Amino acid sequence: HWDKAKSCIEVFVEQLAIIFGPKVISFNVHALLHLDQFVRKLGGLNNFSTFPFENFLGAVKRKVKVTRHAAAHAVKQVLRVRLMMLENASLLSIRPLKYSRNKGDNCCFIGERCVLLDDVSLDGTIKAKENWISLKEEKFSKKNGSHQLEAGCTLVDRN
């Protein structure tokens, strides 16, 4: 299927230049000729597509209604969405980090919260337990420059 897909893309680019003229052949159109190489190296388009990021930026842009300090308002909107996602998340997909259910490796930090992992699947999807541990709740003890959490993981204090 790889060769057939590559052949179809080459025909598309050739026909595009014939129908619309050579001026429409931009870097993006040229990059299509290398798409098969990217897919072979990185996997499906969902693994390296920027569409989710661009779509999210569009959503943030629509929420910013001010002209003064627009960047600060955009950051505030991003943080608000992030907080909402963290508070409601019970299923997280985080790559390329590796997690396990083994004590000591069964939690991760997201912002100021440590979430306990309930299940880890082969595709990298992790299911988090509903209870979050907040660093503000003093559920850790300081020992040798690190914080030992009840969950069994250690956060090294780099300060």
Short description:
By secondary structure, the protein is of the alpha+beta class. The chain is 41% helix and 23% strand. It has helices at residues 2-20, 27-32, 35-42, 51-63, 70-88, and strands at 91-93, 107-110, 113-120, 125-134, 140-143, 146-149, 154-156.
Task: List the defining traits of the structure above.
159 residues; alpha+beta; 3 domains; 4-stranded antiparallel beta sheet; 3-stranded antiparallel beta sheet; 7 strands; 23% strand; flat; disordered C terminus; DUF4218 domain-containing protein
The helix content is 40-55%
Shape: flat
Number of strands: 7
Side-by-side strand order of the widest sheet: 1-4-3-2
Q: How many structural domains can be distinguished in the coordinates?
A: 3
Rg over CA atoms, rounded to whole Å, is 23 Å
Measured between the Cα atoms of the first and last residue, the distance is: 53 Å
**Helical element count?**
5
Q: Can you characterise this structure?
A:
This protein has three domains: 2-47; 51-88, no CATH class; 91-156, no CATH class. The protein has 159 residues and is of the alpha+beta class. It has five helices and seven strands. The termini are far apart. Strands 1-4-3-2 form a four-stranded antiparallel β-sheet, with no helix packed on it. Strands 5-6-7 form a three-stranded antiparallel β-sheet, with no helix packed on it.
